[in-house]
Design brief:
Blueprint (H helix, E strand, L loop, with lengths): L1 H48 L6 E7 L11 E8 L4 E6 L8 E4 L3 E8 L2 E2 L2 H25 L4 E8 L6 E5 L12 H19 L2
Antiparallel strand pairs: 1-2, 2-3, 3-4, 5-6, 5-7, 7-8
Helix pairs in contact: 2-3
Length: 201
């Protein structure tokens, strides 16, 4: 009987400890979420003060709230400013915040990379065909079938001093790499937008 009581007490203590630990983790996650949202709002106000029109925004965040470590997080936005005919690339966790502005007329191409290198033509075509048939969800399915998750987006420009701009969606300090539908959807949306800009030059 004493043994059962002891086991019951230990189990209760374990449950209480888990509840306290889980509550603290959630509290930290909410704090980080508030901090990142505050940064994004501040950066958006800065861009607006510079005359940037936030017409269309594509956003990707890689477990920024769950990891509790900004060095392992990614928070990117790509803004399509139609009125000023430019795109604005924002790394909202960079310090200092230094958005990159690229005029429409200087954009010449856009490509994506997997963690281990360029995505094969087969993988890209699957994503494109999937996007045409099923929209954004189709693009995700198409990319998934290629079995390679996107790690970087490279935008090529006609600017000799800055011929390419890379959006690195992979937090290098992460110990693991997994397939991420949100990351691949962001890349597909960005590339589709870039191709639309080029086609309407």
């Amino acid at each position: 009987m004493e043994i059962l009581i002891a086991i019951f007490i230990v189990a209760c203590l374990a449950v209480i400890y888990y509840w306290i630990f889980d509550a603290k983790q959630k509290e930290k996650q909410e704090l980080i979420k508030e901090q990142i949202n505050g940064l994004i709002e501040s950066h958006t106000n800065q861009l607006k003060s510079e005359g940037v029109n936030v017409d269309t925004v594509y956003t990707y965040q890689d477990n920024a709230f769950k990891q509790l470590d900004w060095s392992k997080a990614v928070a990117f936005r790509l803004i399509v400013d139609v009125a000023n005919r430019q795109i604005v690339i924002c790394n909202d966790l960079s310090n200092p915040f230094s958005p990159q502005k690229i005029p429409f007329e200087k954009i010449i191409n856009c490509e994506v990379l997997s963690k281990n290198g360029w995505l094969s033509r087969k993988g890209i075509s699957r994503a494109v065909v999937g996007g045409v048939i099923g929209g954004g969800a189709g693009a995700i399915i198409g990319a998934s079938s290629a079995q390679k998750s996107i790690a970087k987006i490279v935008i090529y420009t006609s600017d000799i001093t800055t011929p390419s701009v890379t959006i690195d969606l992979y937090a290098k300090k992460n110990d693991t790499w997994d397939f991420d539908n949100e990351r691949d959807a962001f890349a597909q949306q960005v590339c589709a937008s870039i191709k639309a800009i080029i086609a309407n030059q």
